[in-house]
Amino acid sequence: MPASDQQRQQLLHICGQLREALESSQTLGGSSSELAEVEATLTSLNRQMAALRDRKMLEFYNPDYKGDFRNILPCSPLSGYFNPIAPELKIWREDEFVYAEGSLGKIHEGPPASVHGGVISGIYDQVLAFTGLANELPGMTASLTIKYHRPTPLFKTIRFTTWLEKKRDRHIIIHGECHSDGTLLTSAEGLFIQYKK
């Protein structure tokens, strides 16, 4: 049964609390008794959530995303509002470009104080695919090439800019760059194969 508006809001708030808990877990410290209390609380919560598991009320895909690309795949680990590990990025289209902007925290850390390169690659894969959709060219990733120019900092605003480069037959090439404070951090090229209608 699909979630009601109230249930969607409740699930959204639950994911927000889980996201905060995951972020806290990366720098958690305390006495043995303090950690034991947190462990007991989480154990109890996990039992409660396990009793409600396998009753998914959210759609896998939402074609009516109303200009907010994060609504397309509500549970995506890279862009979904309803996935606590998804980076909190605003994703939108402006003219011929699709943008994704926000900051990433400790849950996405690789090298010290920097975002893990695999997370950056995943974000590119998602946003480049959204760029295809924005141009009415939905497709599956065939290849993805990332160039890492500088480490991507944690807790600083970063912006991905992506655009359609060219299309030949069912082959779609989409490019992207990520900047922070005017500095080029990474660049990408994705090859997508257009879905057959």
UniProtKB/TrEMBL annotation:
Catalytic activity: (9Z)-octadecenoyl-CoA + H2O = (9Z)-octadecenoate + CoA + H(+); hexadecanoyl-CoA + H2O = hexadecanoate + CoA + H(+); tetradecanoyl-CoA + H2O = tetradecanoate + CoA + H(+); dodecanoyl-CoA + H2O = dodecanoate + CoA + H(+)
The keyword Cell membrane belongs to this UniProt entry's keyword annotation: yes
Location within or outside the cell: Cell projection, Ruffle membrane; Cytoplasm; Membrane
Keywords: Apoptosis, Cell membrane, Cell projection, Cytoplasm, Fatty acid metabolism, Hydrolase, Lipid metabolism, Membrane, Transit peptide
Keyword Cell membrane appears in the UniProt entry: yes
Domain annotation Thioesterase: ranges: 115-183
Topology in membrane: Peripheral membrane protein
GO MF terms, alphabetically ordered: hydrolase activity
One Pfam family recorded for the sequence: 4HBT
UniProt-listed Enzyme Commission number(s): 3.1.2.2
Similarity field: Belongs to the THEM4/THEM5 thioesterase family.
This protein's name: Acyl-coenzyme A thioesterase THEM4
Protein's organism: Zhongshania arctica
Source lineage: Bacteria, Pseudomonadati, Pseudomonadota, Gammaproteobacteria, Cellvibrionales
